[in-house]
Amino acid sequence: MPAILLDKPFNPWDEIQAFQQDQLQSGHYGATTSFVGTMRDFNIDDSVSHMTLEHYPAMTQHFLDKLCLQCNERYALDDCLIIHRFGDIRPGEPIVLTAAWSAHRAPSFDACRFLMEELKSHAPFWKKEITENGERWVHNDQKSDEQ
Amino acid sequence: MSITVQFFASLREQVGKQQTTLDYESPTNVLTVWSRASDGTTMPDNTLCAINMEYVKPDTMVADGDEVAFFPPVTGG
What we know:
Strand content of chain A: 35-45%
Largest interface: A-B, 29 and 16 residues
Strand order of the largest sheet of chain B: 2-1-5-3-4
Oligomer: heterodimer
Number of helices of chain A: 3
Low-confidence stretches of chain B: none
Helix content of chain B: 10-25%
Order of helices and strands of chain B: EHEHEEE
Largest sheet of chain B: 5 strands, mixed
């Protein structure tokens, strides 16, 4: 049930495959649900060249580790996975991966959504976008920012 | 008692510092720590507070060695 923070690009599909091979028992799970959040090159009618994702390192790791534990306790899962970027991110690069594995589909669907909603509401990350009009912090009341 | 204070994101820019250490001789709470660490700046309404990596309310008391953090609403994912 790992939560991984990365400061460089990652391939979510390779990570899912590697996790399945290394951490899960083949044939034991029947459902895999994943969510990948990817950076756009626009937001609120502006072009965005890149962004910096700041975080509170110790609290972020603590929060995401705890979230994985809560998710495994709440749903009947084989396991779950969170990978989240920080630092400088370019359009088209994945920002976040949440994934959940279970015997049947309902727990994996529900768990994947739970991970993502909790993460977006409480994990201490902050996006700063760099646009042609300068830098700006993203606010969580900017609906167009929703993934 | 000694308290470490950290500011993140827009609050770090607003207050003009990332980290500071404060000493107290009597019990105090998070809001009072904010006031002193930010040189009297009014705490924005949507400020989130944490002690030792756990979310707390501004009236929570702090203890010796605590790390108190202040930051705006989160925007990850």
